[in-house]
Design goal:
Elements lengths: L23 E4 L2 E4 L5 H15 L6 E4 L3 E4 L2 E3 L3 E4 L8 E2 L4 E6 L5 H13 L4 E6 L5 E5 L6 E3 L4 E2 L9 E2 L6 H15 L5 H27 L6 H9 L3 H11 L11
Parallel strand pairs: 4-7, 8-9
Antiparallel strand pairs: 1-2, 3-6, 4-5, 6-8, 9-10, 10-11, 12-13
GO molecular function, one term: endonuclease activity
Protein name: Uma2 family endonuclease
InterPro entries: Nuclease_put_TT1808, Restrct_endonuc-II-like, Uma2
């Protein structure tokens, strides 16, 4: 991102004078030109965005989404996590969580100004991913010292994200994929790959017991009606199925199986 120095007084521009696709942000009415991203910045940005967007508690996430907390301010974090909405045009306010990627050529003063504006207008956390030198993430919160975290440490955003995020998931593609897999499984109701395997084992076991009940009754010359057969085959409670299996060996009347 590049910019020229701005005077302290308010500038003449408003957010509603900019349109989607314009490569400008606004700070106190002054335009800031935003350059396109190179390979490093763009790839890391996508990895981090995927790791955050898939979190089970995230309703909406966006890349370079424009937020306007006041008429002369328009800011577009690299990644933003916010509540769902149906706005047409710029999003009012600021996101609760914003992520900025700082690579070669970054204007540090402009980045500091952007962070300050986001935090002053209600953003709870800004995560600054440093792509120059040792990989690290700076955690910025209102009225708190900057915290620096490195690979192997976890980022948390209570009330915004359900899961902690490994620092490396914001810039390492493989780490991001692992986080996305965990998150997507949780969105589908599973805690892990192991939970899916366990469910498959239990479902197979339950199906086997159910079929054994029907086979045992048939071998004893006892016939169930269609509804009873469906009840047995549809049951996923292994304990209940075992009780019915024991009963199938004793009952003389199949109608008494469920007593």
């Amino acid at each position: 991102m590049s910019t020229t120095s701005r005077p302290n007084q308010s500038g003449p521009f408003r957010a509603d004078q900019l349109h989607e696709g314009d490569r400008y942000e606004l700070s106190n009415g002054h335009p800031i030109y935003c350059t396109p991203s190179g390979r490093e910045h763009a790839g890391r940005n996508l990895s981090g965005g995927g790791a955050l967007e898939t979190d089970p508690d995230v309703e909406w996430a966006g890349v370079d989404a424009g937020f306007t907390p006041m008429p002369g301010t328009l800011r577009a974090p690299d990644v933003a996590i916010a509540a769902a909405g149906d706005e047409q045009g710029w999003i009012p306010g600021v996101p609760p969580l914003a992520v900025e990627y700082s690579g070669p050529g970054q204007n540090d003063q402009e980045l500091e100004d952007k962070i300050a504006e986001l935090l002053a207008n209600g953003t709870q956390q800004v995560w600054v991913v440093r792509l120059v030198g040792p990989r690290r993430v700076e955690v910025r919160c209102p009225n708190q010292p900057v915290r620096m975290l490195g690979p192997g440490e976890m980022l948390t955003a209570p009330g915004i994200l359900r899961n902690p995020v490994p620092v490396e998931a914001l810039f390492d593609r493989e780490a991001s994929h692992r986080v996305m897999l965990r998150n997507l499984l949780q969105r589908a109701g599973y805690e892990s790959i192991e939970a899916i395997r366990d469910e498959g084992v239990n479902e197979g076991l339950g199906r086997g017991i159910a079929e054994s009940i029907l086979a045992l009754l048939a071998d004893r010359g006892l016939t169930l009606d269609a509804a009873s057969r469906e009840r047995i085959l549809g049951c996923r409670d292994a304990r209940q199925l075992r009780r019915w299996l024991l009963a199938a060996a004793r009952v003389e009347d199949p109608a008494r199986l469920f007593d």
